[in-house]
Amino acid sequence: AVLAVSVQPRFQGLDSVRGQAAARKLQSDIRYAQQLAMDRRKTYAVRFDVAANRYRVYDVVTEINITDPFTADPGISGQPWTSGLMVDYTTHPQLKGVDLVSTNLALNELRFDSLGQPRDGNSTLLTATGNVVVSSQGFGRTLTIEKQTGHARIQ
Q: pLDDT category, 41, cuts 50, 70, 90?
């Protein structure tokens, strides 16, 4: 008896990897906003502009983006989409081609108060799990935000 085995490598395409990278970057930025809110005892938010395919992380009181911790690019007053911690999927060098598909958060915004509690764009505590969906050529990832802890998970 002869046993033949065929092994075919499973290869994740670039689009799948790009979608996963976008989800991880977003997850990291959400966690960073929550940590800053607790450390600085202020409210910070992640605002999603689904139509323009971008998001930004900013101080709710000043409306100025926080400094990007990786590039040290500071937020500049009056320049919410060109400075500080913001991601534009139409121009980002590593994430170009990713789509910000949807969010179920009121006003497309996730806020964290000084206790790190997750709130929607109306400053109302989340009463259900928040969702943000990103996709790269059909390879979608959903980021869920737990209503009580604000913990962000990639699914």
A: very high
